[in-house]
Design brief:
Distance between the termini: 55 Å
CATH class of the largest domain: Alpha Beta
Shape: globular
Strand content: 5-15%
Radius of gyration: 22 Å
Bound molecules: pyridoxal-5'-phosphate
Number of strands: 12
CATH architecture of the largest domain: 3-Layer(aba) Sandwich
CATH superfamily of the largest domain: Type I PLP-dependent aspartate aminotransferase-like (Major domain)
Number of helices: 15
Helix content: 25-40%
Length: 394
């Protein structure tokens, strides 16, 4: 489909059709190209390809037609010029940082980010002379105060995991640009079906395709989306040299996932909303965290910034860890796993799993109590899920 057509087409149309380049075989579904290299017609043609004089495929660490279809489709959905697919969400974040930053540069990051992202910043980028300061996600003044002359990059996830705090992307983009920084948003929780950070002023979007983009828990992958100059040059340059590329097979799974993203996200949101409303009625539940509830501190911001409130609900049960574990162990449908963005509902006790390595003081500061439970609502029947969670609440 010609790129210039993309701007006038709706999200669902792009999700199904963007990026497909039909081959001479006239196939209807997108083909998988499981090939590591490509053949040239002559020695001179090989030389022209290698010198860059003639565009085209050379080697699948650089480009692969199936991966390119996924990249073009996701770029169209995020409203970005360019997308680079990666082997995992973590390698997307690493490729973004390695492509953009150098020793002496500084990152300001939300404190409420994925655990491995925190470790990447503190244990690895630090070794190469890149320092990170952490701030509270929705405290704009703290972001501003943490920016130094050498700050190059602001990094966040919104809504946050597991407490679903929401940050004002537009305000942070303005701040970033006023101070010569780029704003990077990990859009894993919302996906472009619910939130498009580039349209709100962010410079780069990160994805763990492992989550909702696949949506069925099958493959690990990631992506970086942004401008042709930064993502297409700096991030792609790192990727083709250092090699955390996405496999053609995984790209095919993800691009088929994108075709149903919009209706899946609507269903995840509808069920999560129902679950949050039901949880609010339960006397054994002391607090519910869901951006769709008017009691959520950033409910209005979420309503403005997102086209749906997401599939993640967190709640606190009275009775601390014992009560939380009892509820989790009483479920018969929910999967006890820390993953999210699957058709299968997952249930997690953050204090002893995803946030288990924090000290009790750090957990307190992050708001992760012993009674906190996170549910990533899947696509099962919602009444069955409510009954399943009800088993351990009594
Ligand atoms: C899972 C996740 C990642 C890391 O992605 P992988 O595909 O597991 O490498 C990054 N950010 C968020 C918000 C995630 O949930």
């Amino acid at each position: 489909m010609p790129d210039k057509q993309n701007k006038s087409l709706g999200f669902e149309t792009l999700a199904v059709r963007a990026g497909q380049h039909r081959t001479a075989e006239s196939e209807h579904a997108e083909p998988i190209f499981p090939t590591s290299s490509y053949v040239f017609e002559s020695a001179a043609a090989a030389a022209a390809r290698f010198s860059g004089e003639q565009p085209g495929n050379i080697y699948s660490r650089f480009t692969n037609p199936t991966v390119r279809t996924f990249e073009e489709r996701l770029a169209a959905l995020e409203g970005g010029e360019c997308c680079v697919a990666t082997a995992s969400g973590m390698s997307a974040i690493y490729a973004c940082c390695a492509g953009l930053l150098k020793a002496g540069d500084h990152i300001v990051s939300s404190r409420s980010i994925f655990g491995s992202t925190t470790l990447l910043f503190t244990n690895y980028l630090q070794k190469f002379g890149i320092e990170t300061s952490f701030v509270a996600l929705h405290d704009l003044q703290a972001w501003e105060a943490a920016i130094r002359p050498e700050t190059r990059l602001l990094f966040l996830e919104t809504p946050s995991n597991p407490l679903t705090e929401v940050a004002d992307i537009e305000a942070l983009a303005k701040l970033a640009h006023a101070r010569n920084c780029v704003l990077v948003v990990d859009n894993c929780f919302c996906t472009p079906a619910l939130q498009q950070p580039l349209r709100l002023g962010a410079d780069i979007v990160i994805h763990s395709a492992t989550k909702y983009l696949d949506g069925q828990g099958r493959c690990v992958g990631g992506a970086v989306v942004g401008s042709a100059a930064v993502v297409g040059q700096d991030v792609y340059g790192f990727l083709r040299t250092c090699g955390p590329t996405m496999s053609a097979f995984n790209a095919w799974v993800f691009l088929k996932g994108l075709e149903t993203l919009s209706i899946r996200m609507q269903a995840h949101c509808a069920s999560a909303h129902k679950l949050a409303l039901w949880l609010q009625q339960q006397s054994a539940v002391s607090r519910v965290f869901y951006p769709g509830l008017p009691s959520h501190p950033q409910h209005e911001l979420a309503a403005r910034q997102q086209s749906g409130f997401g599939g993640i609900v967190a709640f606190e049960v009275a009775g601390g860890r014992d009560a939380a574990w009892k509820l989790i162990d009483a479920t018969q449908i929910c999967s006890i796993t820390a993953n999210l963005g699957d058709t299968k509902t997952t249930i997690t006790h953050p204090a002893s799993t995803t946030h288990g390595r924090l000290t009790p003081e750090q957990r307190d500061e992050a708001g992760i109590s012993e009674g906190l439970i996170r549910v990533a609502v899947g696509l099962e029947n919602i009444e069955d899920l409510i009954a399943d969670l009800g088993r351990g609440l009594g």
